[in-house]
Design brief:
Layout (H helix, E strand, L loop, with lengths): L6 E6 L5 E8 L5 E7 H4 L2 H21 L12 H8 L8 H14 L15 H9 L11 H20 L30 H14 L4 H10 L3 H5 L6 E2 L4 E4 L2 E5 L2 E5 L9 E4 L2 H14 L19 H15 L7 H14 L4 H8 L4 H7 L7 H14 L3
Antiparallel strand pairs: 1-2, 2-3, 4-5, 5-8, 6-7
Helix pairs in contact: 4-6, 7-8, 7-11, 8-10, 8-12, 13-14
């Protein structure tokens, strides 16, 4: 069969291997071709039918302006990732390393990474997400799963913009099918009596880590931040702690990062005298020789694992005093409640937490600031008493 611009013709190869060859001109008038081998498609008739269907699709795409060079789209997802990258110049070091780790751990190891970009479907993405689970069968957090999905979405969006794909298969409901719903968890706020009860119980069973309870409840440090603390970060004269590092656990390995979670996370926090004295006593009793970390593991090989602290120390302490089990992050929530009770305003609390904006603090802890307008009114009334 011959056409004015495009054609299908027969080509007989060696050793009895024959194919139908499709030839066409792309938008730039460059001649392209694709072979449909009889052996691959079962017989001569079926390979011809496949060749005809392919040519019709190519011609229709050229007319509609949807043409994609089929040779371009053969690049594998992994090769494409290394060609275009998954980060951008505005990303901070922490974000870059996190994205690279997520890709290497959860996408590069999946067979999808070896598929050609042009052959990836929404169902491929859906199945990858569905299969995301830890070695022990536990599901990963929604945050991790969303990161995996967004990396794929951004990569395939780049492929669309570079004419490797017509549509992004990640922009479909099917691709998002197995992403868990964002269930808003109720925050746990402890009062100062419960904090003290946990502190005393941990001091009985694991005195080398009791200072953690006091520090977290009265500073609002994140889990990764307190575990990355070194003795040099404490200014004993000015009663402050410098936050500039974090600890991450990737693929079961602890990594100390010499930079914070976000740019706004770099901060200096003032410490009350009681907490400072507890830290001073902790140093006198438990500082390990030649160990920079304040809360290291047994041999100061690394920082203590967050899960180990929670399961071996925190949970048993809660059980012993008859209190509902809490997580390390609940101490951060608690610090906001205690700061509000002490009279701190939202600006001071936001800065102490290392939030990027006051709005983030207000949205996250809205229930703790519901009476802020009433406090403002009371202040205005007091201001006017002297002139009325």
């Amino acid at each position: 069969m011959t056409q004015k611009k495009n054609m299908i013709y027969r080509q007989n190869g060696s050793r009895g291997s024959s194919s139908w060859i499709v030839r066409w001109r792309d938008n730039n008038r460059v001649m392209k071709s694709k072979a449909f081998n009889d052996k691959k498609y079962g017989n001569r008739t079926e390979s011809y039918n496949q060749a005809v269907a392919f040519l019709k699709t190519i011609e229709a795409d050229l007319v509609k302006g949807d043409y994609i060079d089929p040779h371009q789209s053969k690049i594998t997802l992994d090769d494409f990732k290394h060609e275009v990258g998954i980060t951008k110049a505005s990303h901070e070091n922490h974000t870059i390393e996190t994205l690279e780790n997520v890709y290497n751990e959860h996408i590069a190891t999946h067979h999808l990474a070896n598929k050609s970009v042009g052959s990836i479907t929404a169902n491929d993405i859906s199945q990858l997400i569905k299969g995301l689970e830890k070695a022990n069968g536990e599901p990963y957090s929604r945050s991790l799963i969303v990161k995996v999905y967004l990396i794929l979405k951004v990569l395939l969006r780049e492929a669309v913009e570079m004419d490797y794909l017509r549509k992004n298969p990640a922009d479909t409901q099917l691709a998002k099918k197995w992403i868990p719903k964002n269930a808003k968890k109720k925050k746990t706020y402890l009062d100062r009596f419960k904090v003290n009860a946990i502190y005393k119980q941990v001091d009985k069973t694991h005195p080398q880590y009791s200072a953690v309870v006091q520090l977290l409840a009265y500073t609002g440090l994140r889990s990764g931040e307190f575990r990355a603390l070194e003795w040099a970060d404490i200014d004993w004269n000015n009663a402050t702690v410098s936050v500039s590092k974090t600890v991450e656990e990737v693929g079961g390995k602890i990594q100390l990062k010499k930079y914070p979670k976000t740019k706004s996370s770099t901060r200096v926090i003032s410490i009350d005298k009681i907490t400072l004295n507890i830290l001073r006593e902790h140093k006198e009793k438990f500082q390990q020789p030649n160990c920079e970390l304040i809360f290291p593991d047994k041999n100061c090989i690394n920082a203590i694992r967050g899960n180990n602290f929670k399961r071996r120390i925190l949970f048993p302490a809660c059980d012993e005093i008859g209190m509902e089990r809490i997580n390390l992050h609940d101490f951060r929530h608690t610090s906001v409640r205690l700061a509000r009770e002490s009279g701190a305003d939202i600006h001071a609390i936001s800065k102490r937490l290392g939030h990027s904006t006051i709005g983030l603090t207000s949205d996250t802890y809205s229930e703790l600031f519901e009476d802020i307008d009433q406090e403002l009114v009371k202040g205005l009334e007091e201001l006017q008493r002297d002139v009325i």
